[in-house]
Prior knowledge:
By secondary structure, the chain is of the alpha/beta class. The chain has seven helices and ten strands. It has helices at residues 49-56, 79-89, 105-115, 120-133, 149-161, 179-196, 207-212, and strands at residues 7-18, 21-33, 38-42, 64-69, 72-73, 90-94, 167-171, 199-203, 215-220, 223-229. The protein has a six-stranded mixed beta sheet, with helices on both faces. The protein is globular and about 50 Å long. Bound molecules: adenosine-5'-triphosphate and magnesium ion. Magnesium ion binds at residues 49-50, 171, 203.
Amino acid sequence: MENAPVFRARGLVKRYSMGDAVVDALRGVDLEVGAGEVVAVAGPSGSGKSTLLHLLGTLDEPDAGSLEVAGTAVAAMDERARTLFRRLRLGFVFQTFNLLPVLSAEENVELPLWLAGVGGRERRARAREALAEVGLGGRVGHRPDQLSGGERQRVAIARALVHRPLAVLADEPTGNLDSETAVAVMDLLTALNRSSGTAFVVCTHDPALIARAPRRVFLRDGRVVADERGAAA
Ligand SMILES: Nc1ncnc2c1ncn2[C@@H]1O[C@H](COP(=O)(O)OP(=O)(O)OP(=O)(O)O)[C@@H](O)[C@H]1O
Ligand SMILES: [Mg+2]
């Protein structure tokens, strides 16, 4: 099934109920993401970007519709299979970096490999290689509080890629960075995409990032209202 799209979503519906209040966060989203594609998911606050990312990442389940990841129906996997799939085949990057504060950059990047059962020596070598790829070869021993915001986000990106996932899902990865650093991080993601072949789905508000993405999917009120490819107009 290696030729199957990384994600194939059909009619995804997600509804949140809180007491009497019901929010239709996704109202039937179709989306296909091919191997190695880079897709920016844009849209106003509350349009469903994070909800979509959580469903694609198998972190949450849709109320209706179907999702296949690399040709496998997510609904047919049990919780254990989903957890393993997430750990081994996906990478995540969040706005707040989500690095463990007591661990060094290298130890943070080793975590996905540790979860995948990779041995200590190989873990260290691959973590160092991933950190060198994001330009942090000189910071392997630094803890997150000893790094700048852009450096922390690059550690998070190295961690998301170290186990060579099929896809990296990023939610506002540059939301806490100044605009120059944000553009540098997006350019880094694009370069890593070329070298690794990993697909990237990036939710963002940032017009500079949206303009740099080769494909742009716009959400509004839980629906896809535009899907553009090629250079931004
Ligand atoms: N856990 C939840 N419980 C209840 N409602 C939720 C929950 N998560 C999201 N929502 C609602 O679903 C809608 C879509 O939220 P979502 O977080 O996907 O939007 P978003 O496009 O990521 O917005 P932002 O740009 O502000 O991050 C919003 O109206 C939100 O209030
Ligand atoms: Mg969001």
